[in-house]
Design brief:
Elements lengths: L5 H10 L7 E6 L4 E4 L2 E4 H13 L4 E6 L3 E8 L4 E9 L10 E8 L3 H12 L12 H8 L3 H11 L1
Antiparallel strand pairs: 1-7, 2-3, 4-5, 5-6, 6-7
Helix pairs in contact: 2-3
Length: about 160
Amino acid sequence: MVKLTGKEIQKQAEKLGLTRLKLTLLYARPKKIRMTFSKWKPDTADTIRGYMKTIDPSFVESSSQKMRSMVFYNLAPQVNLYVEIADKLAGSTAPNPTTHALQIKIYSDNEEHIRGIANAINARWPDGILPHIVWDKIESKYGVKREDAIATWKGLL
């Protein structure tokens, strides 16, 4: 099996026209961080991966890392779903989930898949994700207004 790079997955999504589908932006933070060698992986990436694998057996994924950020690329071509997760470290310690600010780009014209991803992430928290997001970090890293981000979450949950 050939492992694709994040840019190759991104180009596949573009070629399939998935990046021209409706874009839904969610902002979040992980509940847990898993460290592997010199990389960190938020549980949110695993949650989205698990959801996408259950709806499309042709699912592919990859990631890329820069100094204080990671991007996870997830493509489910059979169901026209493409998700990019940007994880920016907004503090000094990568193992601490509260130092991560996530932007989740969901490209899909299927509202059920968008809601499925939002609900899978929300279900990781007993009381839902919204009370746990560190909004100051989200606002500073992505230049988004918390009211708009909260409205998007509430519209999907």
